[in-house]
Amino acid sequence: MYISNIKIQGFRNFVNNEIEFNEGVNVIIGHNNAGKSSLIKAIGLIINGDASRRLEIDDFSKSTSLIALQTDPPKVIITLTILQSPEEDLNSDDLVTVANWLTKLDEPYEAQLTYTFYLPIDKQADYISELSNCTTKDEAWLIIKHQYLRFYTYKIFGGNPALQIVADSESLQKFDFQFLNAIRDVERDMFTGRNTMLRDVLDFFMDYEIKSADESVKSSTQKYQEIKQLKSDFTSKAGVLINELQSRMKAGKDHILSYAKQTGATFNNAEPDFDGTISDVDMYSALKLIIGYSGLDIKIPATHNGLGYNNLIFMSLLLAKMQVNSDGKYLGSNAKVFPVLAIEEPEAHLHPAMQYKFLKFLKENKEDRKVRQIFVTTHSTQITSAVSLDEIICLHNENGTINVGYPGKTFPDTAAGKKSKAYVQRFLDATRSDMLFAQKVIFVEGLAEQVLLPTLAKYCAIEMEDYHIAVIPVGGRFFDHFLPLFDKNKPFTIHKKVVCLKDRDPERKLKTGGSFTSCYPFQFNQEPALYDYKDHVTDKITEYSAHPNIRFYGQNHRKGKTFEYELLLNNIGTDILITEYMTNRSELCTLIDFHKAKKLPVDFFEEIHKSDSKTKFMEAIEAITDPSWTDEDKTQAIVAYRYLASIGKGENALELANVLEENLKLPHIAPAEDPTTSIRTSFVVPQYIFDSITWVCQ
C-alpha cells in the first residue's frame, strides 16, 4: 500500500487542495512559502503518532471571509487516501492495518483517514453570537484565538468520513513517520550510547549474525537460547569487575557511610551500601561513535565533524531505527507496518555532490523496502536534476492560491509527447531546472539573451530578481518541448507566467522544390512568384496572443532577424555595442560613422573587406527593387549584418553586459559642480524585449 493522495481544506495556505503522490520517492519543490513544509505537516497530523495533533490559530487558512467566519467556526480537514500497491500480497499486514478504513473493496482497494480539527457543537451557538458583532476579520480571529481555540478538539476518522467512525489508535500506531526538519542540529550526545535512538539501534543489531541467520540453519528457539547465553556470560564477566570495584572502594566506602551514621540515616537498622550488576545494554553508554580514516592512524569523535557530515550519519541511524521498528520478530505486535520518511531541505547541510549521493541512498533503501514511501522537500536544483520528472511535485503559490503541478504528467501520451518528455528530462541539469522553482520563466534561444536580459530589464526600470524570474536558454528550435509543463489550459501543469523570446530568422525556399534556407530581412517577400517565405516567430506570436499564461515575443517587423541584430538596429547611432575585444572593431566603428554621415550603401561596400559571403550580401543589397527599402534602411542592414558577423555570442554578451552595467552607474546629466563628468550613453532596449519584460512582471 502507499499514500496516493491527500486533500487539505482550511490548513495554512491550503484553502482546498488535492495532491497526488507516487508510491516511492516524492520530491516536493516550489518557491518560498509555496506550502512545502505545510504539506509535510499535514501528512504528519494523521500518521505521526509522536507529534502533537493540536493546532494553533495560525494553522487555520486566513483566506476565509468575515461572513464565513461569522456563519461557521473555521475547521481543518485533511484526508489521506491509501491505495493498494500493484504487486501487493493481500495476505500481508498492509490490508490488515487498513481493513477498518476501506472505502473501496475491489482491487486495488482504497482506504481513507480523515483528520478534523473543529469546535464542538455545544460551543457553536456561543461562537456565532460572539462573532456577530465583529466588523473585521482581525477582530474575529482574535476572539477565536483567546476565547474559543482552547475548546477545539480533533478526531481522526477511518473510512468514509461521513460515518464518523474514529480510527483505532492501535492501527494508527502501525505507521512509522520519521521527519527531519530543515532547522535541525544533531545533538552532541546523539552519537553515544546514552542516546535513546542509538541504544535501540544497538540493541537490535547486537548479535545480529545470530538474529539474521536463516531459519533453515538455526531455529528461533536456538537463536533465543544462544543470545540468552551470551547475555548471561557477559553479566558473569561483568560481575568480576563489580567485585573488583567493591574491593578497591571498601575503605573509602566505610568512610563515606560513617557520615550516614552521623546524620541518622542508619535509623531502625537501615545500612546504606553500594551494589549492582552490569548488562550488555548498560554498557552502551560507554560507547561513542568515532570516525576513523582508512590508511591513517586517526580517530576522532563524530561530534567533532561538520554538521552536514553528522546529519548524513544521523539519517543513516534513523533508517536503521526504522528497520528496527518494522521488525515483527523483534517487536512482535508492536512492530510498525508502514515506515514513511520525510526530510525537509536536505541541502541545508549537504554539498551538491553529496545531495545526489544522498538521494541515491534513499532510493536504494526504498527498493530494499526499509522505507515504504519517501517525501523530500527541497530548493535544490541538484536534487531536482537527479530525479525523474515523474517523481517531482511542484507547488506554486500565486497571490495566495496554490497550484499543484506534476511535470511528468504534463506531456501527452503520443510519440511527440514522449519525445518532448525525454528531451526535457535530459535537459534539466542543476542550472536549467531552476525553471521549476522560479515564479516566472523567460525562455531564450542562447547564452547572449540569458546574460544580457537582466541588464536590459534594468534599462526598463525593472529588477528581475524582485520578480523571481528564471531566464533559461533552450535553443532556437526547442521551445515547444517545454511549454507542456506550464500550459494553464492543460491538466497537471505548473501555472506560472512564461515568456518565449524567439528570433525572427526569415527563410525562403524555391517553389520548384528544395528546403527552406536563411535569407536576409530585405529579401523577405521580395519575389513571391519564385519563393515561399516564412519566419520563426510570427505564427507563434499569433498562436499565443490570447493564452492565459504563455506569450511569444520576437522581432515582428520587416527589418528583424536576431537578438543581436535588433540591438544594433535600435542603437546604431552609438558605439556602446562595440566592445573592446570584438573582431572587426575598427571596421564597425567606421560603418557607424558612415551611417551618421548618411553615406550611401556603395560607400559602405568600399569599407567592407571582401569575401565570398560578403560579396553575396552586397549583391543582395544592390538587387533590392522594393522602393520601401530606402538607402537608410539598407545602410542599417549593412551595419547590423557586419555586427552580427563580428561577435562570438557568449563572449561578447558577457563583455557587453559589463559595459551596460557600468553605463547605468553614470548620471544622465553632468552635475553642475563638475560638468566634465562622464554621462550615461543613451541606450534603447528593443521594443519586443521591453514588451516581454513588462508583460511577465505584471
UniProtKB/TrEMBL annotation:
CDD domains hit by this protein: TOPRIM_OLD
Stretches assigned to the Endonuclease GajA/Old nuclease/RecF-like AAA domain: 1-383
Domain named OLD protein-like TOPRIM: residues: 436-505
Protein's recorded name: DUF2813 domain-containing protein
Originating species: Flavobacterium petrolei
